[in-house]
Amino acid sequence: MATADATVAMPRRPAALGWARLPLWVRRTILFALLIAGWQAYVSLAHPNPFFFATPWQTAKEIWDGFAHGSLARPTWTTLKILLEGVGIGILVAAVLTAFATLTAVGDDLLALLTSILNPLPGVAVLPLAMLWFGISTKAILFVIANATIWPIAIAVTTGFKTANQTLVSVGRNIGLSRVRQITDVLAPAALPYVITGVKTAWAFGWRTIIAAELVFGVAGENGGLGFYINNARNYFLTSRMFAGLVVIAILGVVFETLFGMLERRTVVRWGMKTS
Amino acid sequence: MKTRLTVLAAALAAVTLAAFAAVALAGNRAEGPPSKITVAYQPGLGYAPLILMKQQKLIEKKYPGTKVEWKVLASGTPITNGVISGDIEIGAVGTGPFLVGWARGVDWKVIAPLNLGDLWLMAKDPNIKSVADLKGKRVATPTNTSIQAVVLRKMAQVKLGDPKALDSTLLAMDHPDGMQALLSGQIDAHFTSPPFQFQEKVRGAHIVGKSYNYFGAHTFLVSVMTQKFYDDHTDFAKFFYNQVAAMHNLIKKNPDKAAHILQDDAGGTPTWRQFKQWLVAKDPGLKGPALTWTTRPLGLMRTATFMSKTGQLGGSRLPPSWRELVFPPVYPTKGS
User: Per the count of CB atoms within 10 A, which of A43, A193, B48, B226 is most buried?
Assistant: First the structure.
């Protein structure tokens, strides 16, 4: 993620072939092309069963067709929509819980206890129960994603608050900031690196949970998401579509990594709280 | 530093080449009797001929040198995957997944049809009286390529004018989960098979539609193997077919004994009396039993044609005749 003029933490030895001197996008593109070439080489040389391995070209064609005709676009959007909703709920609940934990000691203990009990539960393990409680509906998936996202964010935010520079906190108290203003003006900015990491982690957990839940859930037709798309491809022996679904997930992952990176560069990196 | 990098790169290349070589050379080479046989089936009464073969160790007795493994898998999809990957030699699946795979170029055919089956669409809510009432309601079938899903589309076409009318709320659930969901009210209808449809009927559900009314008497389950396996072990394949036919005879002529064997396999419940009742079950509205035990395939072409029309067979490749779908031992049954 280094731009050419950002601060570098450790001096690096000049690379043997000048690799590091190339611009970022060139390096990434070359590596990406090498990966695709490796994939194509495997298919051409080892001739795997076409039901097991699609070629890069077939996969690309499936993605193109899928987005042009909507058979892949709609599931992608469905999954993203549910995930955004779920993570949104997670952030809200985490914010409330964290505020409670920061303002009162009992809240702190409660949050620590809930986190240690509920954080280790994988979303897919909670899904059967959630389906019994909420029926076979989107509510069950939202519940499961919320559970997967609340705890990473809550942990991250409380850690951020607790590791805020005590000098700054004292300064805030000295100049007479109210408790609320102390949270918004001193603690929150101090905790921002942790918050962003927490949201990144929660997003990753959310992704895994929703794809797995959709594979288990299996709603057909217009309401299916990416997980259903992949499972459907499996039922119809369409391996290139399975690959296409996975590649789309990977691409979305890269996109969100980039977005988070941009957010970080504009905030914590600029403020010198994190080297990129 | 340069030397270290070169060594690392060479090691990486060597590992990759070794991996390619291993994959390329891997494979099951067998002549004569097979060295191993894995037979995979799903929970359900329709697989009774296989269970009877398993309990009586018929394959083991005739082929003592062969390692025989019987697997029960939750749905047809892992079975089809296993057959393609060579893990499973004989898979028992519904006609739906078999036809979809066949149309996609999976090189497999039916070695022994297991039965004809009248499959029932069950609902618990008394307000759901016909398929037309199911629009917008949640219906569960085993998978969306199962024979139940295919018949559901036919029902939708006949009663609602559009075969895909019920697709948007279709749920895929295996039989035990679907039964529980129907009885607990989580879904509105469950398109299932024996014995689950019998159990649901006893527990208060009613029949909304029967597959025989839309497709005529048709094959429900088939056992499939790849063309390669058949070519390599033709004698074994013939033997397998004959054994399935023999099990059919056992069920028809001696249902008590068959029921006892099934009870043993199930670990005591349901009882043999229950099994016997299911094996030969007749419903007053039916002309014959819900399950007919025969190796004669019926309705394969009719099912394939319908699936092709609704796009489930990938649009192309309709078999010219039913004989293209089965291996030679089945030809004399004059199926359809």
Answer: B48
Calculate the alpha carbon distances from B177 to A24, A167, B48, B103, B145 in Å.
51, 59, 21, 29, 18
> Which positions in chain B touch A136 (Cβ < 8 Å)?
138, 171, 181, 186-187
Q: Which of A237, A239, A242 to mutate to test the interface with B (most CBs of B within 10 A)?
A: A237
Average pLDDT over residues A151-156: 90
User: What is the pLDDT at residue B166?
Assistant: 83
Do the Cβ atoms of B314 and A52 come within 8 Å? Answer: no
Q: Is residue A131 part of a domain?
A: yes
pLDDT at B87 over 50: yes
List the CATH number of the domain containing A165: 1.10.3720.10
- Tell me the shortest Cα–Cα distance from B88 to chain A, in angstroms: 15
Burial label, B268 (beta-carbon count in 10 A; 0-12, 13-18, 19+): exposed
**Residue B30 confidence class, pLDDT cut points 50, 70, 90:** very low
Mean pLDDT computed over every residue of chain B = 84
**Is B120-215 assigned to CATH 1.10.730.10?**
no
Residue A7: pLDDT band with limits 50, 70, 90: low
pLDDT tens figures, B65-77: 888 999 998 778 8
Query: Where along chain B do its domains lie?
Result: 37-116+218-333, 120-215
Q: Do A220 and B168 touch (CB under 8 A)?
A: yes
In the predicted structure, residue B299 carries a pLDDT above the cut 70? yes
> Range of A131's domain?
73-218
Element (H, E) at A193: helix A188-217
Segment A121-145 mean pLDDT: 84
Judging by beta carbons within 10 Å of its beta carbon (0-12, 13-18, 19+), is residue B214 exposed, middle or buried?
Answer: buried
- Residue B77 has its nearest CB partner, among A42, A52, A234, at A234
Number of domains in chain A: 1
DSSP state of B114: E
Q: Which amino acid is at B19?
A: A
pLDDT bracket for residue B283 (50, 70, 90): low
What average pLDDT does the segment B7-25 reach? 68
**A12-68 pLDDT per residue, tens:** 665 556 777 888 778 888 888 899 899 889 988 888 877 888 888 889 988 988 888
Per CATH, domain B37-116+218-333 is 3.40.190.10: yes
3-class SS of residue B304: helix
Nearest to B171 among A218, A232, A237 (CB): A218
Residue A220 to residue B170, Cβ atoms within 8 A: yes
- Residue B126 region by backbone torsions, left for phi larger than 0, else alpha for psi between -120 and 50, else beta: alpha
How buried is B320 (Cβ within 10 angstroms: 0-12 exposed, 13-18 middle, 19+ buried)? exposed
Quote ipTM for the complex: 0.75
DSSP-derived pairing of the beta strands B90-94 and B206-210: unpaired
Is residue A42 included in any domain, yes or no? Answer: no
Domain presence at residue A195: yes
Give, for A86, the enclosing helix (H) or strand (E).
Answer: helix A73-103
